[in-house]
Design a protein that fits this description.
Layout: E1 12-16, H1 26-40, E2 44-50, E3 62-66, E4 68-70, E5 79-81, H2 86-95, E6 99-102, H3 107-118, E7 123-126, H4 144-155, E8 160-163, H5 166-174, E9 181-183, H6 200-205, E10 214-218, H7 227-240, E11 245-249, H8 255-261, E12 266-269, H9 273-281, E13 285-288, H10 297-304, E14 309-312, H11 315-318, E15 327-330, H12 335-347, H13 349-363, H14 368-384
Parallel strand pairs: 1-2, 1-6, 2-3, 6-7, 7-8, 8-9, 10-11, 10-13, 11-12, 13-14, 14-15
Antiparallel strand pairs: 4-5
Length: 403
């Protein structure tokens, strides 16, 4: 008999994240979608995260600002939460969460985990980013084993750890990253992202001819997104005399250098909503050379717009791209192989159209409601293991007006 978690669903959840509304990226989009869904189910959510003077978008739910500092160097747009000051701990205790959800093993995550253990509240975590691989892009590869060990210690203290794909689960299981790994996949809003968003007029306004084959990139312009491999591959296509047009959607600290590498590319800056969907659908091939994602939201959004993808054969893409069916998976960093696959799709219109249809069919089953209902069942199992929370049945305060 399946485990009945309906009556054990948490009524109040405290979510901790290093970024929730000041930079839009894949993890932030997933977390905001989750909070919106939980509130629709009648579950109260209090989000604790660093904030900036200017938010990137209007967030879901109630957000409590955590003291933070900007990260040094090229990632200064991101902020590091400095833990849980006394006022925040008082808010937490007054809120009386049934569950603590941690989105990163940072300082804030560690402090929240310790708080949960002290108050006998189940703590779960979602695994969004391969932080251990970041050092490879900043000449700090020697740090990787130490970061991995620290992450393992963190996740071993959590009741459940949610990963976005089976291939990511297999990798983390081999690393003994956590004792209870579960799938929290990602969904896509097909009303927002679909091939009907293609806009010939918009293409022309951006200097893209009707016959041009557009290779698109969508994401933060940071080194760990595989920008070097992307640019090197397009240089190889140019050397071969293969025609294409590059479309770059996003912004970040590498914008200037990336622009110098690809002077003929169309740079749109950061886009969201209908404008982002239009950019996806108005391209012809999606190219993602990154190996740091755990899922690849951008790849799924491109597929929903019927755009075949050429991606690095890594965790972020392996669960989405069936090589030879809706795109190609390529050995990470192999410039020649990437160029070969892109050239095939550029020159073979019939193949590209076949793969487009397959992309559309494969993305149709990935709805957010189905994905998040499964996560809610996992929450119920975690709550069931803690029947004697410190404040069970105690009077609590209303935090609907928190800032």
């Amino acid at each position: 008999m399946p485990f009945d978690t309906h009556n054990l669903r948490p009524k109040r959840i405290a979510l901790f994240s290093g970024n929730y509304n000041y930079v839009m990226d894949g993890p932030v989009r997933a977390l905001n979608t989750l909070v919106g869904f939980l509130e629709e189910q009648g579950i109260e959510v209090l989000v604790f995260a660093p904030t900036a003077k200017k938010a990137a978008f209007r967030h879901k739910g109630t957000l409590v600002s955590i003291p933070s500092i900007a990260l040094p160097g090229s990632r200064s747009e991101y902020r590091l939460g400095l833990g849980l000051p006394r006022r925040v701990k008082r808010q937490l205790e007054a809120f009386q969460p049934d569950l603590v959800h941690l989105a990163a093993p940072d300082i804030l995550g560690w402090r929240a985990l310790s708080w949960a253990k002290k108050h006998k509240v189940p703590a779960v975590a979602s695994f969004h980013t391969r932080f251990d691989t970041y050092g490879r892009y900043y000449h700090l590869g020697w740090l990787e084993k130490y970061v991995t060990a620290l992450m393992r210690k963190f996740y071993h203290r959590c009741e459940q750890v949610y990963v976005p794909s089976e291939c990511m689960k297999e990798i983390l299981a081999e690393q003994d990253m956590a004792p209870d790994l579960r799938i929290w996949s990602r969904g896509v809003d097909t009303e927002q992202f679909n091939p009907g968003r293609r806009d010939t007029k918009w293409r022309r306004e951006n200097g893209i001819a009707d016959g041009d084959v557009v290779i698109s990139f969508v994401g933060r312009l940071v080194l760990e997104k595989g920008l070097g491999v992307f640019a090197d591959t397009l240089d190889e296509l140019k050397r071969r005399g293969v025609p294409y047009k590059a479309l770059i959607v996003g912004d970040g600290p590498e914008r200037e250098r990336f622009g110098e590498r690809l002077p003929e590319a169309v740079f749109t800056g950061y886009l969201q909503g209908d404008a982002l969907a239009r950019a996806y659908a108005s391209s012809d091939i999606f190219f993602n050379a990154s190996i740091t994602e755990t899922f690849g939201n951008v790849t799924l959004e491109a597929m929903a717009c019927a755009v075949p993808a050429v991606c690095a054969d890594a965790t972020g893409s392996r669960s989405l791209v069936s090589s030879g069916e809706n795109g190609y998976l390529v050995e990470p960093g192999n410039i020649t192989a990437f160029a070969d696959r892109l050239q095939t799709l550029i020159t073979d219109t019939a193949l590209r159209e076949t793969m487009s249809a397959t992309c559309l069919a494969m993305s149709a089953d990935r709805t957010w409601d189905a994905v998040l209902n499964r996560l809610l069942e996992n929450y119920g199992e975690a709550v069931a293991k803690y029947p004697d929370r410190a404040w069970k049945g105690a009077q609590r305060q209303d935090f609907s007006a928190a800032e």
